[in-house]
Amino acid sequence: MTQRPGVLITRRLFPEVQQRLGEHFELRDNPDDVVWSPAELIERLQGQWGVLATQGDRIDASVLAACPDLRVVANMAVGYNNLDLDALERHGVQASNTPDVLTESTADFGLALLLATARRITEGERYLRAGRWKQWAADMLLGAEVHHSTLGILGMGRIGQAIARRAAHGFAMQVIYHNRNPLDATTERACAARWVSKAELLRQSDHLLLVLPYTPANHHAIGAAELAQMKPSATLVNLARGGIVDELALAQALQSGQLAAAGLDVYEGEPQVRPELLALINVVLTPHIASATRGTRLAMALLAADNLIAFHEKGEILTPIKSIQACNQV
Ligand code: 8YV
């Protein structure tokens, strides 16, 4: 009997995914979800043919040089800023991500985070739980309107489009967006959105949602200069990657009243969150859970597993990562 290839699974996964992979590969896993250092990741990758990884598992030139047997990386995430694509190409290692399967639940969460932030839902809950609610008051916890307001979307990929459809058709919002390349007219019509320059987007948005890929060019795409162009009444929501926002500049803008509120699901140093953000009341903070429904996470894990199986059986990647140059930067 020929030896089955080895696959490392970097995180605790669902039993059905583990079982499916176990039918094809020799598995090395991480059932206790221990956080590995880069050296520990390299140690566990020794001799492995494939890896099922996710954001946070940095696979770069040094990892690839130390793990010459590695042939394929299945990333359980649509984002892939944890992977050095040039180094993967140089080492002849294939890579896949998990697009589409998480689009709708992530878009649901985008709206939820926007609503929670603009309507001060978590702040209201903290107020109530602290026993501070003594009576109904006409001016208590007043939030910003969501319906009929202007929603700006920075990064109009699949998730941005799904958010635009919900916002335009469900909340009668006026949707504007900015991408390096505008969408084609049919797609624009379907999500009732209009392309504007980045400067216009910052100026006009009542709520600005960030759903762009994190690339070197998008590092701190929202910094002090961009925050200064936004309306003081505006809400900023980041669903993408922490590094897209200069968090210190954001904390300062939120503290000084230059910006009304922010909803963040992602952080530059996650899982560490800056004390400057934790100290603010006008920010809703969630622990990178935009795609976290059982159905979606299971679909993501199964797609990652199927990429490994298809590559093993047919030499084919089902959802290959397109080159970084091809992504729509802003
Ligand atoms: C989670 C995401 O990171 O897909 C992405 O890029 O950011 C999220 O869906 C994913 O669940 C992996 O942890």
From TrEMBL:
GO terms for cellular component: cytosol. Residues 111-290 form the D-isomer specific 2-hydroxyacid dehydrogenase NAD-binding domain. Pfam families: 2-Hacid_dh, 2-Hacid_dh_C. This is Lactate dehydrogenase and related dehydrogenase. Residues 7-318 form the D-isomer specific 2-hydroxyacid dehydrogenase catalytic domain. Belongs to the D-isomer specific 2-hydroxyacid dehydrogenase family. InterPro entries: D-isomer_2-hydroxyacid_DH, D-isomer_2_OHA_DH_cat_dom, D-isomer_DH_CS1, D-isomer_DH_NAD-bd, NAD(P)-bd_dom_sf. PANTHER family: 2-HYDROXYACID DEHYDROGENASE-RELATED, GLYOXYLATE_HYDROXYPYRUVATE REDUCTASE B. Transmembrane segments: none annotated. GO terms for molecular function: glyoxylate reductase (NADPH) activity; hydroxypyruvate reductase [NAD(P)H] activity; NAD binding. It comes from the Bacteria. The keyword NAD applies. Keywords: NAD, Oxidoreductase.
